[in-house]
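User: I'm writing a tutorial on reading structure tokens. Could you give me a worked example: one chain, its sequence, then its tokens, then a sentence or two explaining what the tokens reveal?
Assistant: Sure. Here is the example chain.
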Amino acid sequence: MLGVTALVAYAARPHFSSTERAWCDQMLLQSWQRHDQGLAELDSVLAILDEAKIPAISLKGPLLARRHYQPCFLRKASNDIDVAVKSIDLERAYDAFVRAGYAPTTTIREARLRYHHLAMSHPSRRSVELHFRLSHQCLGIPVDEFFDRAVQARTPSGRNTLILEPADELMHLVLHFAQRHKGGYFLPTLHEIRHVWTSAPVACRREAVRRAAAHHFAGAVAITDLACSSTWGTPLLGPEIAAPRTWLHRWMNEKLYRDFERRATLPLTIRRTPAMKLWGRWLEFRLTDRPHDALRVIKVLLLALWFRGAQ
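And here are its predicted structure tokens:
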């Protein structure tokens, strides 16, 4: 159900009779079990990094759920474990996960050139994404700067880790949503942003927008603001936060958002066709902050075509 099954079951359960609650209880139990499994696998991932003495930031996932959802298992469990590691530590992290039985889905060289993370798969566990950029493939923000501001956190088992500072976390959620045109659980991602955003102080929200604009991701803020306005009739930013403008601000309208939403909800097989991939780059082009950023999007497209031809 588009990733919102647990939320529907939780909301509907009080309105059902005792005999009709079986489906709700089953869905909530499954969600709870997936949440607990996610915590256990996060602990295992952090243990691998701790043994290699590699500092890491836990991104999104069950720790975000425990801070922002009541009960915590209402957040849709991630299909992978996301952690950020400094660029200088990526090779050592790669070696540590290979020793633990993981295999990379691409080479480190290709990951650095094309993506924002190195994905490591395992035959019996969730895959791990080692982020060296926060989002947006090779156009993303290097994660190194976030370590200085990161906040200490602890898993329920007692293992120490780092999480993003609140304004950085808000920015990350917005940047993550701005990539949803590539597919995934569109509605839960948008709901999560709205939920976390509205619970944060205005000063924190304002700082998240400032940082996004400073890194030339005002377009990501604008599309998320449009998404909230279109879905709930209320913008994300509100009158207390100035909306940053991009060089293509005249295209920031309902039609752009509908194109964005339509592509995000297409079946995966359709999104992967050459025409749909080109459409995705066109959407990214329209979300750029400056002409220079637009040229970088074109460069990424050409790089992807070169890699495809070289294989």
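What the tokens reveal: The mean pLDDT is 91. The beta strands are 57-58, 80-84, 103-104, 117-121, 127-131, 151-154, 160-163.
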